[in-house]
Each structure stands twice: as C-alpha cells, then as structure tokens.
Amino acid sequence: MIRIFSHYLHRQTLLQVFFDLGLIVFAVVAVVLSQEEAASSVIPFVASHGLSLAGCMFVINSASGLYQHVHNRSLTESCARALLGLLFGLPLAYAIFSLLPVDPGHRQLVTFAAMLAVAAVMVHRVYAAHAGAQSRTRTRILIFGSGAVAKTVGATLKAADPHALIVGYLAGPNEESSEVPANELIQARGSLTDTARSLGVDEIVVALSERRGGSMPLRQLLDCKLYGIRVVDIATHFEKTLAQIKISHVNAGWLIFGDGFNQGVFRTAVKRICDIVFSSLIFVLTLPVMAVTAVLIKLESKGPVLYQQERVGLNGAVFKVIKFRSMRTDAEKDGKPRWATLNDDRVTRVGRFIRKVRIDELPQLINVLRGEMSMVGPRPERQFFVDDLVNKIPYFAVRHSVKPGVTGWAQVRYEYGSTVEDSIEKLQYDLYYVKNNSLFLDLLIMLETVAVVLTGKGAR
C-alpha cells in the first residue's frame, strides 16, 4: 500500500494507472515519429492531446469502477464495464484528435492510433483484473500474535486481498493458546528481528492479545524498523487495509496523537470553492433529469414533489435537507421516526428507481450552495437517530466535525444498512474520511459515486 495525500492506495493500482496513461501517450507519439515526413514540431501538440485523452480515460475508468480493488467481480461484469468505457472513450479519442493541427493524412493515422490505444487500455483493464491478478507482486506480511486478534487480522487481510502473502503467525511471549491454524504458526528463529529477516518479511502487523508484563518486545520491533521492515499496529492495519478506522481496535490516544484530522482554514476555503463550482455545474447539467423526475413523482402519487426534513450537520447544527419525495406522504403517520429499509414498502415505484440511481439526492445541491452541506462528507442523519447512536456508539459525534455530504466514503463503500450494527460499520468509514479527508480523496469518492450510480449498487 502507498499513502498519497493521507489516503492508502494499492501499489498495483498506481502502476496500472501509469501503464494505461503511458500507453496512450506512447502510441500517438510513436505514430508521429514513425512518419519520416511528419514535422517534429507537431510532437508537442500530439503529446498534449495524448495527455488530455489519457486524463479523460483515467476519469472514465475510475468512474466505471475499473480501478477498484474488487476480487469477486466476474469476467462478464468486467467486460461490461470495459465496453461501457469504450462507448465513451472511442468517441472522445476521435473528438480530441480531430482538432490536431496537422495535415489530414497524419491526423487520421494518429486518431486511429489513439482509438486503438483506448481499446488496448480496456483489454488491459480486464486482463489485469483477472488473468493478471495471479502475477502481482505482494508484500510479505508477518502477523505477530496467534490469538483471537491475530486471527481477525489475518481473516481481514485475506478478505481484502486474497493474493496477500501472509508468511505466517508468530506467537507472542505471553500467548499461551493459539486460535490460528497450526500449519500457519511459525517457530521463532532466534529473536523477532532474526525471524522476520530470515523470512524476508516486508511488514509486521502487531496483533498481540496480551500486551502486559513485557509481552511487547519494543526493542526488537524497533530493530525491525531500523532494518527497513514496516511495523504497524492493529488500528493502522485496518485503516490501510479496509480504509476504515475500527472502533473496536482503536483508542482515544491513537486518534489524538496520530496524524490526520487536519481541517485548516485553507483546506476549508478550497473545499467550499470546489463545492460551489461542482454543485452549480451538476445542478445545471441535471436540470432536465430533475424536471422529468418531478413530473413522474406528481403523476404517481399525491403530495409534494420535494420534502424537507431536519438533519444534523456541522458541529451538531440542525438544518433542513431537501430531497425528491420517494415515499408515500403517510410514511410516518404515527409520528415515530423509522429507519428506511432495503425493500421498504413505504417507497413508491418512482421512488424505488430514483433512490437506486440516487436521483432523489440531486435537490441536496441546493443545501450545498447554501453552505449547509458539502459535495463529499458523512451522510446527514436525523436528530432522533443521532441522539440514540451517540449514546450507543463511541466516537459517533466525531463525524459532525465536518459538513455532511451529498455522497461520502461510507456511501460508496458500504451496502444498504438500517440497524445500529450497520451504523457502526458506516461510522468506521466516516471516521476514516474525517481523519484523512483531502481534495484528492474527495475526487476519488466522486468518481466512485459515478460508478455506484452506473451500476445501481450504492448504499443508501
């Protein structure tokens, strides 16, 4: 894993992105260089057009979910996503290179090369997601511990990356019983440092069930670090592996003294400017969609097209969120707040569709323009549920240290949830966002939101 702007990315993903982008630029420049009569002065123009197309393809592939680290995706689904990318990529390549300031013959050749490169990128995306997965170089990880905590760490790592190379588990000094498979236990080869070096370990995850009475060999762990072996605790392991902050394995000290939670005046100001620009642009572009939605809602059932409901925002301030009405007007006729469920019978037919593709969220752009919400942030909850969850879930109030968002890390990462347990799971993603939020992460979330909308698999 590589950390970029406080967000962890798979090293293999970055390599794939650079390979795809480089392939497009190389293809168009190579065609020009192969033509003896082509003037060298046009190479900068060709390269700049190639970079423009490469950037557009990065956005398309990201929005199609082709760079997501998913292991249970079928070959058919990957091909479908690649075909969707081609539907946008090929016309885009033709449009960009039709503006190339060269003679028609060379322009046609370079345009063909660009379109061929786009097709090659899509083939590579499918190959890398399936046939190429077996050949990836993996980090060699030693889990220091053999109890229940170590077992959880191993299971999490394997679920997040089935090809992760766990060299084994090394029992701690005071761990008397083991809960991991016996064949995965490693016999110490001298000190912890000697054992790690002899196994060629790249990273050690400290997952000891017992940390008192000298269970933590700090000097040996420091020696491992001095030899270039990364040493991480459980909380950091979950943060980078799952892009979550597991509240069951974190304490206030880790949150306080660790890095992150950097809001800052400059960051806040830039985010606000981006919110205004993006929300205004999206609002204008989606006006026809919103108009059609309003008509369909009115035709299907009596009642207002929009509904407003009090939600908790930044620093606990209450505001009224604006959304398209997707439920019957008597959804809470008894006056008692209820969680929305996956197959909620209160949802209308039109409402079920607009919730699936998130059209019902579009009026929240007005909240963004008002400054009550941001484009990206934790989902705003109702005061009734917030009061209940603050008492039941540690650190729940931390999510109110940033503005709520139209979309967010938890919303693109977690399936539909309507229980306290689901709220805990979502909170762990929200904490990760609050701790590591940056404009870079906001961009990734917005791109993943597009993928969620296209596939209709978003959490609500």
Name some characteristics of this structure.
alpha/beta; four-stranded parallel sheet; 10 strands; globular; transmembrane helix
What does this structure look like?
The structure is a single chain. This protein is α/β, with parallel strands linked by helices and 460 residues long. The strands form four sheets. A four-stranded parallel β-sheet has the order 4-3-5-6, with helices on both faces. Helix 1 runs antiparallel to helix 4 (104-129), helix 2 (43-63) packs antiparallel against helix 3 (75-97) and helix 2 (43-63) packs parallel to helix 4 (104-129). The chain is globular and about 70 Å long. It is 52% helix and 10% strand. The chain has helices at residues 11-34, 43-63, 75-97, 104-129, 148-160, 192-198, 218-226, 234-242, 252-257, 265-285, 287-300, 349-356, 364-370, 383-392, 409-413, 420-436, 439-455, and strands at residues 2-4, 7-9, 140-144, 165-170, 203-206, 230-232, 306-312, 318-324, 374-376, 405-407. The model has no long low-confidence stretch (mean pLDDT 86). It has three domains: 2-134, no CATH class; 140-242, Rossmann fold (3-Layer(aba) Sandwich), CATH 3.40.50.720; 265-455, no CATH class. The protein has 17 helices and ten strands.
